[in-house]
Amino acid sequence: MAELHIIGKISSAKDFKQQRLLCKWSFHAGNGWKVLNGYEEGQTQESCDLYTNEPIWDHPIDLHYTTQTLQNSPKLLLQIFCRDVHERILFTSYGVCNIPLSPGFHSIECHTWKPIGNWKDRLRDQFLGITLQLKSPSVLVNSLDRFELLTQSMGTVKIELHILARNFEKYGCHL
Q: Does 48 or 92 have the greater pLDDT score?
């Protein structure tokens, strides 16, 4: 079996209007991928940096996969939330990035976005803080349907990963 070991961290966020942010994250891979060790999902702590407006999370990731195929390789789904002035935790944005399969260090900037809907939805978002959310965010990693969504760009999440690949060449996977 070929093995892929992902070690790293969800480092920080930048260019968000909100200051107090947290990130829920989850890895998604096809049926040909099996988790040997580690957690496929988690959540960072809430972070706030009033001076730079770039929250630092440094949240660790350590996940070990085994596979016999490159198809449906792992993707990372991010859901960003903020705490507003009324202490409510509100959804802010989604982000999806492919996990590199080549060994070595990778610094990834995952751009995030939120669905904006029609003019009524935008008013609710602007004045009440009620942002549209998908019923099943996992659809973002499995289909091309997301390209039909009307969205607004939000901030960027920095992810730093060390990738260890083993035995991919035995299965015809030359990285």
A: 92
